[in-house]
Amino acid sequence: MPNSTRQTTTHNFLRFLVACSITFLALATTPSHAQLLPPPAADSTEQASAPAWPEDSLGRRTPRGTVSGFIKAVAREDYAKAANFLRVDPSLQENQDETKLAQALQRLLDQSGTIFPYSLISNDTEGNQEDNLGPNLERVGTATVNGESFDLMLEKVEDSTGAPVWQFSSQTVSRIPLKAGEEISTPLVNKLSPYVLEENKWGGVPVSHWLAILILLIVAYFIAWGITRLVLVVTPIFWHRARTEPTAGIVKAFTLPLRICLTVWVFVAASQQVGLSIIVRQRFSEVTFIVFMAAVLLLLWRLIDATTQFTGRRLAHRNNMAGVSAVLFVRRAFKLALMVIGCIILLDSFGFDVTTGIAALGIGGIALALGAQKTVENFVGSVTLIADQPVRVGDFCKVGDTVGTVEQIGMRSTRIRTLERTIVTIPNGEFSSLKIENYAHRDRFWFHPKFGLRFETSPDQMRYLLVELRKILYAHPKVDPDPARIRFTEIGADSLNLEIFAYVNAIDFNQFLEIQEDLYLRMMDVIEESGTGFAFPSQTLYIAKDQGVSKDKTTEAEEQVRKWRKTGNMQIPNFTPEHISKLSNTIPYPPEGSIMRSKTS
């Protein structure tokens, strides 16, 4: 075995041993008359609605109280008191010693009996009404006599005041072996223990039984460890899918919870087989139940991690960031639900009435909704973000006035890393209602500069620039040729304006900046070669002798207007359709000398 594996095993065992020691000391120092997890007192609402029965001094008003009271009595070896928890058939009561019956029931439970953990026994005066056993019967465990197994039943009867009490049923009591042929053999733990450890008791239990618990815990852990190690080694040999994800991750997720479950199962089975006292077993029953449920919840927790991590990696490999966001959200939601379930199980194990609490959630749902409108709004917003997918984790976007990269989409809020490397947290309810501009989904980048040239630029220089700048757009491998245009769009107040419209094929914004920079430099070279330059906001003042207007041209224009008036042919305010038809297509376009004119002729 490699050193790292050996060290890990040693550390795990030491941690397990320390935990067992702490649990052992906690239980051993608990007084014999104390229940491990005492049920809480009934609340005022229950007391107000329940009949006002006088308090039973033995605590037999509920099935849990009866079992707990019997265990306390036999732990103190007060069998006369323990006999009060047994219901003996009245026709046989005179012929039976109830004290010996109590002792015999303890021996039966020590050797071959099991009582349910307290959290699984009803703490209601009426018992469990959903077990299909009738209103006056309650099943609390099992026992075996002469190879035949039977249920340990409680029966509800009335005491002298007419109040209900629960006792071990007469049918169960009749199965308790008293005859010589039915005597129960000496427990194995008593046979193997020295006399001094058997005679000295701690908490109503022989010291040898406490020592046996520690030994059984250690043995159970090593058995469980060996089985899980064997499973890890053998499974990939016979099941090839266990060598690859996600099966390998799921198998590993099972390891620790399975080891804990096996430890609990082996410990419980072995403690009954060796005949450990029912007193100590009942004290440990709640611990084993809680540990077992914790192992189940841990298994589910690890399965959630294993499956979501594998799914997330596959989606990320496919560049499906929306799927990754959904997986993260689902994982958090499932883990939150798992924690709620765990808390409910834990509270139920401690004896709290969780059904009442769950029912109260329905009544308090309206108040909760009114008091947590923003929380509900944010949750709905997160669902909208996952379903609609306007942004994904890793997208560069603009949300409202915030520009940055989406780092996390949570159940309540979304986090954005800004260009200044700060984190902006936006509640999902607000996020989903804002204007969202997602730059990550751009397939191309818009190249749209405007150049202002000097007024000294001649028409032929302008024609030269239009031709040469178009050449750059058509020739550049990163510029999409359709559309790729440059136009003389405006004679401005202080410049002759050219406008470029094209799209650049780039992977991301950084590459676009590189290509844009290259285009700018090439266009600057062309403008310089044309003999003109960029205009600056300015005014040019010409000081010269005014030659006035041309009198000849003015006379010609006025003569032409007089002819239009004389002939009635002045096309003002509108041209006639006949004149428009006559003028149609009389201007040569493309203009004379254009290369496009020779292609269209």
Describe the structure.
By secondary structure, the protein is α+β, with helices and mostly antiparallel strands. The chain folds into five domains: 1-30 and 187-318, no CATH class; 33-185, Nuclear Transport Factor 2, Chain: A, CATH 3.10.450; 319-441, SH3 type barrels (Roll); 445-529, Alpha-Beta Plaits (2-Layer Sandwich); 554-600, no CATH class. It has helices spanning 3-28, 44-49, 63-75, 79-82, 98-112, 170-174, 188-192, 195-199, 207-238, 247-273, 278-317, 321-349, 354-371, 373-388, 428-431, 459-475, 509-529, 551-567, 577-583, 595-600, and strands at residues 114-115, 137-145, 148-158, 164-168, 201-202, 205-206, 396-399, 402-409, 413-418, 423-427, 436-438, 445-447, 450-453, 479-491, 496-504. The strands form four sheets. It has a five-stranded antiparallel beta sheet with strand order 10-9-8-7-11. The protein has a four-stranded antiparallel beta sheet with strand order 1-2-3-4. Strands 12, 13, 14 and 15 form a four-stranded antiparallel beta sheet that branches.
Keywords:
disordered N terminus, 5 domains, 601 residues, 14% strand, SH3 type barrels, Nuclear Transport Factor 2, Chain: A, five-stranded antiparallel sheet, alpha+beta, 20 helices, four-stranded antiparallel sheet
Map the helices and strands:
Layout: H1 3-28, H2 44-49, H3 63-75, H4 79-82, H5 98-112, E1 114-115, E2 137-145, E3 148-158, E4 164-168, H6 170-174, H7 188-192, H8 195-199, E5 201-202, E6 205-206, H9 207-238, H10 247-273, H11 278-317, H12 321-349, H13 354-371, H14 373-388, E7 396-399, E8 402-409, E9 413-418, E10 423-427, H15 428-431, E11 436-438, E12 445-447, E13 450-453, H16 459-475, E14 479-491, E15 496-504, H17 509-529, H18 551-567, H19 577-583, H20 595-600
Antiparallel strand pairs: 1-2, 2-3, 3-4, 5-6, 7-8, 7-11, 8-9, 9-10, 12-15, 13-15, 14-15
Helix pairs in contact: 1-9, 9-10, 10-11, 11-12, 16-17
